Please model this.
Amino acid sequence: MNNLSDINTIKRMLSHHGFTFSKGLGQNFIIDSEVCPKISESAELDENTAVIEIGAGIGVLTVELAKRAGKVLSFELDKRLLPILNETLDKLSNVEVINEDILKADLTKILAEKCAGMRVVVAANLPYYITSPVIMMFLENKLEIDNITVMVQKEAAIRLCAPVGTREGGAVTVAVNYYAKAERLFSVPRTSFLPKPNVDSEVIKLLIRKTPAVTINDEKVFFKIVKGAFLQRRKTLKNSLFASLLIPKEKTGEALQLLRINEDIRPEKLTMEDFANLSNILAVYL
Model:
């Protein structure tokens, strides 16, 4: 099998198939031979594990995943890549390429039909433009996933894996921490891709929690409060919740007093427990 991370091999293959990169699909193929083996190892694969990959590209990560996993379900939206994948993955009997949008796929049905009895993980070089939607889809749908090991833009890695209650955090940080334990694994420079993007990347790992990080009365209310709090993050929490959810400032102030939290606190300073307690108290106003 050709070295799929070799830039000359990639260029010859793409030229042969008349393929050109799509900026709209966020296509950046890996040309660093060390990256994909490290992603595969980090996902902790074995013969009883099924992997969901998003964005197969020409199959460079797919091949590494197939070496270690029992099954690989690789979602690729771009039909133009299917003939190339037929060529690069031809000898891999444990790989199935699915030409579907991962955000529209019926994953519950697919996992039941194709991965019954197997441990399931997600591993991918995620297109930057769908990073948060894809991660939140897996978390919110509460699929039977063990971990999510993905390469994302460095800025996104910092935000997704930041401790809740720190300046780097945001609404997505709280959401990720509610469902999973997040860890930054290793950096990948922009020179590791073809074409070269304008930013560096990082591989992160989300270990899915068996139970959420905090106990709350109503998840919908909890996430409304979290999203509302960060919608205007430069404002104080009272002002932000009033502007986004029309919760009276005095009621938020009373709730903060009850929780012994400074009334002028900004949302980025709240802990997971603070958000949980606050959502339980303010639920009546939603």
The chain has twelve helices and nine strands. The beta strands are 29-30, 49-54, 71-75, 95-98, 119-125, 147-153, 180-188, 193-194, 201-208. The chain has two domains: 7-208, 219-285. The longest strand covers residues 180-188.
